[in-house]
Amino acid sequence: xxxxxxxxxxxxxxSNGTVVGAxxxxxxxxVLTCAHVVAQALGISLYTPEKPLEDVHLDFPSIExxxxxxxxxxxxxxxxxxxxxxxxxxxxxxxxxKLETDPPVGAIPAPLLSKNNLEAHRFAAFGFPDGHxxxxxxxxxxxxxxxxxxxxxxxxxxxxxxxxPGFSGTPIWDKKLKGIVGIAVAADLERIExxxxxxxxxxxxxxxxxxxxxxxxxxxxxxKTRAKGSWRSRPWAWASLVLVPVLSATIFLLPSVRGELxxxxxxxxxxxxxxxxxxxxxxxxxxxxxPSSKNRGFEDSLQEKLLESKIDEYAAxxxxxxxxxxxxxxxxxxxxxxASLVFWANRGPVFFRGGIVVKDWEQQGYFFKxxxxxxxxxxxxxxxKTFPQMVSILxxxxxxxxQYSNGQIQEARRTLSTLLDTPESTELAQxxxxxxxxAYFLQGFLLSYPTNPNYEKALKAYEEAARLNPDLxxxxxxxxxxxxxxxxxxxxxxxxxxxxxxxxxxxxxxAFVELANLYYQKHNYRASEEAFELAIKSHxxxxxxxxxxxxxxxxxNPSGAVADLEMALQEKPNDPQIYMFLGEAQLRSDQLEPAxxxxxxxxxxxxxxxxxxxxxxLKLLAGENNKYKDNVTVxxxxxxxxxxxxxxxx
Length: 650
Known about the structure:
Elements: H1 2-5, E1 9-13, E2 19-27, E3 30-33, H2 35-42, E4 56-60, E5 64-77, E6 94-99, E7 112-113, E8 122-127, E9 136-145, E10 151-155, E11 171-174, E12 179-187, E13 196-201, H3 202-208, E14 216-217, E15 249-251, H4 266-275, E16 279-284, E17 286-287, H5 297-308, E18 316-323, H6 327-337, E19 341-343, E20 346-347, E21 351-354, E22 356-358, E23 380-383, H7 387-405, H8 409-420, H9 425-431, H10 433-447, H11 455-468, H12 473-485, H13 489-499, H14 505-521, H15 525-538, H16 540-553, H17 558-571, H18 576-588, H19 592-603, H20 608-624, H21 629-641
Parallel strand pairs: 7-14, 15-22, 16-18, 16-19, 17-20
Antiparallel strand pairs: 1-2, 1-4, 2-3, 3-6, 4-5, 5-6, 8-9, 8-11, 9-10, 10-13, 11-12, 12-13, 15-19, 20-21, 21-23
């Protein structure tokens, strides 16, 4: 939303007050902008190779306009004088500034997202072109990449501001992903009528300053909470992928440690706190027929098994000499001991029985498997002899997920490598096919993550996951997506066709959607439409939503999108996300009365905060094109005048 972006924007000036460009607050005292903007502000050459030492002047126009702050350059990637190709590995025309004082109260860093495929996403940008020192908004569409890795952006063709000189360094706000995906860097001034400009995407900014990678976050999944994000929360994943629920553990996010810890290995917990490591706590297991035996050899051997895998390089493995025999006890002791994982179990001579509980991580999607088909249980049974091995495998998997959810991509990669990149992993994988398939799948996901992706290794990981578990069709689907990233369109096409025949109809539909997009990029529009029809045939909801998005964003056919979304509502009535999507499509196709009905229905699903966010989105829509303004105003008045169902009217 514009309201999330504005408190982060800075206006960069010459020492005499002349405005030369923009930037944004990325974290605490750090501001990101273009090197050529800084060069213009300081009156030095654009190609200056050395980091400038002079102070840079700036202000926050939406917070305290006119209050000049000083900053110094800490990262400098100058403009390349001869347009070298390939461009420098650590980027060009990028500068990071550090404020000499705290930013003004109310200045807030905006979310910086890292995502590869941005094509057809709509954007908003705020800049300071000549004659507009107070700033103006520009709107448009993100396009493909060019040779240097920059992303082409195009303004709306109707009257309005384009990204032009004065916008340089400003953040580009992706309206779909709800975050910043790059900074404006250049505009095509020879073909002004085309309204074409370019941005430096986030992944190139991270290459220029690796520290920035710690502050980038995964894109928000519609309907989910970003802070609780999971690699299984991707739209194609939650309908068909379930974690193997055999790890006997209760998982918590590690809270801050307060005070000394009581009984047990308090020094282990204390050292973990000092080192900033998550804690894996191994409690005494209960016997099926009574309390735990005094012989704790099995628990100790489990600890040794975990330490053998070198898990202590990034997590502390601590023993708890206290019986924990059910999830409720594990949850309680997890809070008490500030542990990320607490293992519990009831053991017998042949089988262990245990379960897994997830706290404050709702969309993670952990489910309990029924051991006895006649009686649902919140536990699973597994062979005693394989228990330590299973714990080791799934501990690595779970910890890497926790690290990913906290934005620690590199750490999550290392955690999985500790499990998978070992000489014995091949033999263990053959003994634990499905578990290792899940691990390789997650490794592929992490390696293809936009922050420093390694597509070749990701491809191998996905292929190994599919080999170990041929029913994991998502792994095959992901290999197709990786082939697209590697510009191997023919291989991707064959994989999508293959996955489209699988028995998982949701995944099959996703494959046909990818195939439709691939054909669209090749300008084979007839084949693209046929692929969408196959997607709808496989899974109506998935297919209708995907085609509606294509019709609205790519094909400029909002009335067609309306028809698809009405069909999607028949498949999933009262879904607020579909109502939002339908309302926008109706407004774009000038269907005011149906739109009023849609937004009235939507009101029943909104909180006050949701309604405020929706109003901001509608204001952005009105700003894109004047022809939407009157109808959008009617809808905003309707939303603001109607009480929400949960509100009392006095």
